[in-house]
Amino acid sequence: MRAAPFGLCRFWLGLAMGLLLASDSGLVSAKRYLRCELAKKLLDPPYRFDRSLLSNWICLLEHESDLDTSRITSNPNGTRNYGLFQINSRFCQEGRRGGICNVKCEDLLEENLMEASVCAKRIHSSDGFQHWNGWQRHCRNTQNLPNLRVICGI
Ligand SMILES: *[C@@H]1O[C@H](CO)[C@@H](O)[C@H](O)[C@H]1NC(C)=O
């Protein structure tokens, strides 16, 4: 009889651990990055963003998504913007691969930035940073760009 409450306790503990693990291993693993963490990540392989443009990208991402890969916003025209780079749904397709970048929109919400960064670089190479309102409003003036050398040591 003495073992019963102890067994019950272990049961609840096991259940709690199980739920914790389940919520942590969802299909899409999203992440809110810290500024320097993200800057270093984008600079390194496999992403390899151009060092000379990195402060523009970081400024853009801070104003577009607050460095949160799970961010989805709705536009007045009914389209949506997905993820860290707030990529518009004409570049992706909801539910399956498609759009200009041939990517699934939901995959742009992942902690892994491969699909999102390839698509963002593609947008940048055709439209430049002015494609993004967040960059136009807050980052166009180079005085507003973060000095990553000083702040992050990179
Ligand atoms: C809808 O609005 C977004 C954000 O302003 C824009 O990027 C996109 O091109 C627009 N799409 C259409 C079909 O007008």
TrEMBL record:
Catalytic activity: Hydrolysis of (1->4)-beta-linkages between N-acetylmuramic acid and N-acetyl-D-glucosamine residues in a peptidoglycan and between N-acetyl-D-glucosamine residues in chitodextrins
Residue ranges crossing the lipid bilayer per the database entry: none
Enzyme class, spelled out: hydrolase
Keywords: Antimicrobial, Bacteriolytic enzyme, Disulfide bond, Glycosidase, Hydrolase, Signal
Domain Glycosyl hydrolases family 22 (GH22) intervals: 101-119
GO BP field: defense response to bacterium; killing of cells of another organism
InterPro entries associated with the record: Glyco_hydro_22 (IPR001916), Glyco_hydro_22_CS (IPR019799), Lysozyme-like_dom_sf (IPR023346)
Entry's EC annotation: 3.2.1.17
GO molecular function, one term: lysozyme activity
Entry coiled-coil feature ranges: none
Signal peptide: 1-30
One Pfam assignment: Lys
Protein family: Belongs to the glycosyl hydrolase 22 family.
Protein name: lysozyme
